[in-house]
Every structure is written in structure tokens, then in C-alpha cells.
Specification:
It contains 26 helices and 16 strands. By secondary structure, it is of the alpha+beta class. The strands form 4 sheets. Strands 1-2-3-4-5 form a 5-stranded antiparallel β-sheet. A 5-stranded mixed β-sheet has the order 13-12-14-15-16. A 4-stranded antiparallel β-sheet has the order 6-9-10-11, covered by helices on one side. The two termini are about 55 Å apart.
Length: about 600
Amino acid sequence: MAGRIPQHFIDELIARTDIVEVIGSRVPLKRGGKEYKACCPFHDEKSPSFTVSADKQFYHCFGCGAHGTALGFVMEYDHLSFVEAVEELAARAGLEVPREGGAAAPAHPNDELYIAMERALLFFRQSLSGEPRAREYLDRRGLDAEITQRFGIGYAPARWDGLLNRYGTTEDERQVLLRGGLIIERNRENARPGDAPGFYDRFRDRVMFPIRDTRGRTIGFGGRVLDSSEPKYLNSPETELFHKGRELYGLFEARQATRSLQRLMVVEGYMDVVSLHQSGVTYAVATLGTATTPEHLTRIFRLVGEVVFCFDGDRAGRAAAWRALENAVGEVKQGRQVRFLFLPDGHDPDTLVREEGAEAFEARLASALPLSDYFIRELSSRVEMTSVDGRAKLVELARPLVRRIPSDVYRELLVTQLAEAVRMSPGRLGELLGGDESPGRPDGQPPRHAGRPLLGPSSSAGRGNLVRQAITLLVHHPAAASGATAADIEALALIDRPGIALLAELLAQIREDAPASTAALLERWRDRPELASLARLAALECLVADAVQATGELRSAVSRLIHEESPAHRLDTLLAKAREDALTDQEKLELQGLLRTKGQSGRAPPAK
């Protein structure tokens, strides 16, 4: 079908994608032998049961049964469609997604908005080169040409119609600019009937910072004045593309700068992010004129296991830090770390990193407060800790926040630390705080994979079933297909037994175009109902260690199948069984069919 993503591209994408890096950028992994382990991101657990195999390029959770390839993980974890996940991994690998028949990707309903935003970006970038005041401002702030280019910084001319005259010359174009928040419609309350609507540019005489989504597409802008005018910063309004409560400025650039992010630092402003990146602290991001929201944190913890909130040490910075903590407690789980870094009075990240450099700035991270320490320190500062009344008030202040912590382990440890501060036993304080309650998922539902049985029996499964054994060998060691010939495949196709058709097709497919890994093989079956069975086998431990041994094992299994399951051998087997024992209804039908084939339908012995 024209427009589909070719299978050869999916093969190449899987071959060029390291599942350990993909999952490791979202979930903290620890090496354990040949595999990597973590607490499962798809259900809450105390002991790691989630494994990632670099050899198979496959993940599996022994607790909830979740498993799949890097592509499948991105779909599940990031809640993306198949095409979106392909584009995400392709962007990470520096590949352009092709389409069969040379067709372009299907039109997206917001394509015209994305085009309008890119045009605006180009206009602002071009305008910067012609405005000395804007260039002088960036020079004073210490930004060089390379960082300006990397972040796409531009300038909106001091005109009411600069962008309008360039890209809003028709009514259709103006409506698109309006939908994108780039222009404003004049108040028409006092307009006379028949008056034409009027529009003007939203951003005027401002340095422009494009806001990009995770795929690098411009979805909004932030504009800063060049003087002391107000408002100092002006952001795009909420649009079909831009939702400031979930977007993070600099996230795209941070992911581009570091292939495998370990932490993100959340700061307050555009200039903070750009200056930190220029200095080498390339994991800085910023919220967009709003407090850190649960959606921000969800996005952060999909990518990294650690977040550091970096705020000014003044009253506004402390207030912003506490708002961040209030939202962060609902996201604290095993493997996640939240810390708070407060800068010296009179400094923000922009000025401090330019004054002392990246190395000294990053050294301050050693003094960043863990969430638990900041939690207790801040609440303690609000009460009189030397009195019983004050300590009782602290417990009441802590109660609603402690109850929102989803991790039993973290909640218990925090209660223990809090108990020491208020001079109570941890057990009694836990009862008072309602620490035994388990909130589960935020939507009140059980974990996404709860109740899903393990896909397949124990690791030794399949040894007694030749068909299952052969398919398992192929799933774990695709190169073992060299142990079967074209004649073997033709012979297998004549056998009428469950799973034989799948085995024959696998052998033919792999011999024609061998996949590089288990993951690559599975992706070829993504749209087929057999994928579930193949994935279950991939999740099992294979008792055959390498491809050489697997090739020999497969050759033996195929040979036995052809001999033992051939029509003549099967006929002899069923006739012998009929003499000694009763046949099942299915076996009776099979026997009758074999006898008819040989022209011996009248010689069947009576079934017992």
C-alpha cells in the first residue's frame, strides 16, 4: 500500500537502535549478568522483575508479563502510535522515514499549523540579522552565534504587521496564523457593520525563543523585550499545538546534545537554559511561565530517573520550589530521584554559570537537597519544633502530601525520617498519616498489565514439542535457519500439524532475508496474529546458548519432524494407536483423511 513504511526500513531502524539505550534513557537500568534489570515501569513493584536483553533486543517483565522490542516499548511507555514511535526512533538514529511508492506521509490535521510556525521561525531568524539592537542584546547576555543558531533564536520586528505582511496576505493564511497564536484579531465591539476584520502581530520588538516539541517541530514562541517594558516575557497562547502546562523549553535540544540523558535540571527562564547549554550543562530545561505540573514530571520521568529543580534563593524561588515539590510527591517511585538546588541570593543560573563556569556550577549539585530533606526542612520552618503543638501541626501539614506518594517503599522511608523529626515511633506515625493506604495508579485503576498472565510456561517449555522447539530456536537465534534447506521447507509444508505452517513460513522468511536480532524478527510480524505467540517464546529463557548450537538443534528437530510427521509415518502411528487405545475424534478424522489419500478407506479398523 502506497504511503506505508517499508519493512526494510523497519529492519534497518531496529538494527541501528540499541534497546538498552532507549529504555535506559527512560528507566534506570542496572546490569545483572548478560541482561539489565529494573523495577517495571508498567506496574508498581518493590523488587526488580523487568529485564532487558541486549542480545535479543527485547524486554520482558516477569511480574506483569509486559514485553516487546524497542519500538514496542516506546509505543507503550510514551503512548505513541506505531508511526509516531517509528519517527521517534528514526529521529534518534538520524534517519528519515521513507514511504512505499514514494508517497508522503498522510496529511496531519495540524500540518498547516506546523508550516506556519516554521515560516514564523524563519521570519524571526532573518529579522535578527537586520536588527543591531537585538544582536547587541544577545552579545551582552554572552550568547555566541553557535548557540543562537542551535536554539533558533530570532527577533520580532517593532512593527504591527511584520509577520502579517510576509505570511498573512490572504484570509486563509491569516486564519492559520490566528490559530497558531501568532497574530491577534482587533477588538470588534465598536466596529461598524461591514467593517473588515483587523489583525496585528502578537510579538513585536522582542527577542524570540522558539519552543519545540520532542520531534523538533516549532509549536510556540517566547518573546523577551529589549528594554524594561512589561511584560518582560510573552509566551504563545494555548493553541492546538502548544500547551504550556506540559511543554518544557530546551527538552528537544537536551535530547539532541546527549544521546543517553541521565538527569534533567529544571530552571525558570529561557536565558537560563540557553546559557547553561552554552556552558556545557546541556541537560537544562525550563517550564514556560508556569509552575511545574504533574504533566511536566510525567514527561521528565519518561526520559530520565533524576530531576533537579534549580531555583533562585529568594522568596519567589522558594515558593516555586515548594509548588514543584507538591506536584513531585505524586511521581516519586523506586528508581526516581528528585532534588532541589537553591542558588546564592542575587544569582540565577544564567548569571552564575557565566560567572563561575560549568564545572563549579555542576559541583553545586552535590549540595542539592533530596526531596525528603527539603520536605522536612521546609515544613519544620513553618512550625515551632520545640513544642508538642508545633510538631503536631507539622504532622498535619505533612499528611496530605505523604498520602499522595505512590511508592510504598519511599513513603515508609519518608515516614521514618519524619518520625525522627517529630519524636514519634515510625509505626505510630505511619498509622496517623494513613501510610498503609496504597493509592495505586492516579486514575484509580490497577497497573496497566495487572492480571495479565505470564506468556508461556516455564523456561524449559517447548523441549517436548518439536514444532514449538524449532520455532523457539528461530525466535532466539534467527541465524539457525541455515540448518534447514529449501527441500526441508517444502517437506514441512506437507505436514498437517499445529504450528507447522508458522515454522515453514519463518524458515522461508529468514532464509530469504535474515533479521539481525530477535527484535527485528518480531517486528516483521507486528501486524500478524502470530506475533503474540512469537513474543511469548521470545520472553522465555532459551536453553541453547549460541547460534552454532541452535543451528544443529534446529537441523535435528526439522529432520525428526519430516520423518515422524510425514503422512506415511503418521498413518502407521495412528493405526498402531487404534489397535491399542481409543482415538480422539480429531485423530479419527485425521486417520480417515490419510486412508482416503492412500486409497485405503475401507481398511480402517474399528475404533474402540
